[in-house]
């Protein structure tokens, strides 16, 4: 971590920590009571909770739509490419087959004919198209793996954090409606998200799996 990053972390965390200790600190009380700080709760609920949730869901939907569009385009390109390749590779010999064979023999013997074979250009074009489709398929596979990882991370975050977001809002408006056990469970569920994240990364991506194994084995 660079010096600038360290300074940024200190600035981001120090200000709220100091303000919290000065304004809302109560000796021997470890729980922060939302109902006593409603203006702060409104700000946190909008900026820190629901707005990020909406943005993440919106971006995920856009990424999902883009991935689906690319998949359909790739399938369409493959379907278009396959018949032309079949025509090129499976065409039956025609009356000019003897002439083509003669030109091939002349080429082997060093007598290159002056006229070019049109099928060579067709084969070259089909080969280039096949290579391009293969590159597109490989790129799509890599992007799909990243999308799967993103799906795991986003849905685990929403499952662990959204319940607390709503409980947090309700407890600020009417604390009596939220049982203590519900608040405690949803509160600790947010920490559970940080616990499962490393396993989700490791499960969904080979690179993360290898890095995770090295960390577990102490091979830094």
UniProtKB/TrEMBL annotation:
Biased composition (Low complexity): 109-121
GO molecular function: G protein-coupled receptor activity
Membrane topology qualifier: Multi-pass membrane protein
Compartment(s) of residence: Cell membrane
Domain of life: Eukaryota
InterPro entries: GPCR_Rhodpsn, GPCR_Rhodpsn_7TM
Name of this protein: G-protein coupled receptors family 1 profile domain-containing protein
Organism expressing this protein natively: Ridgeia piscesae (Tubeworm)
């Amino acid at each position: 971590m660079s010096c600038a990053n360290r300074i940024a972390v200190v600035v981001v965390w120090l200000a709220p920590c100091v303000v919290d200790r000065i304004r809302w600190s109560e000796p021997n009380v470890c729980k922060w009571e939302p109902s006593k700080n409603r203006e702060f709760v409104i700000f946190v609920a909008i900026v820190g909770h629901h707005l990020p949730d909406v943005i993440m869901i919106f971006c995920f939907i856009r990424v999902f739509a883009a991935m689906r569009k690319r998949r359909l385009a790739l399938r369409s390109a493959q379907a278009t490419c396959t018949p032309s390749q079949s025509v090129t590779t499976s065409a039956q010999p025609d009356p000019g087959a003897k002439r083509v064979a003669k030109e091939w023999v002349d080429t082997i013997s060093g007598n290159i004919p002056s006229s070019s074979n049109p099928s060579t250009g067709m084969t070259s074009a089909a080969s280039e198209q096949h290579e391009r489709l293969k590159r597109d398929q490989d790129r799509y596979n890599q992007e799909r793996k990243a999308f799967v990882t993103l799906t795991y991370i986003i849905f685990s975050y929403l499952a662990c954090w959204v319940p607390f977001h709503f409980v947090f809002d309700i407890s600020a408006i009417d604390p009596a409606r939220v049982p203590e056990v519900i608040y405690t469970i949803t509160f600790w569920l947010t920490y559970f998200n940080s616990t499962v994240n490393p396993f989700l990364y490791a499960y969904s991506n080979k690179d993360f799996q290898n890095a995770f194994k090295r960390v577990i084995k102490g091979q830094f």
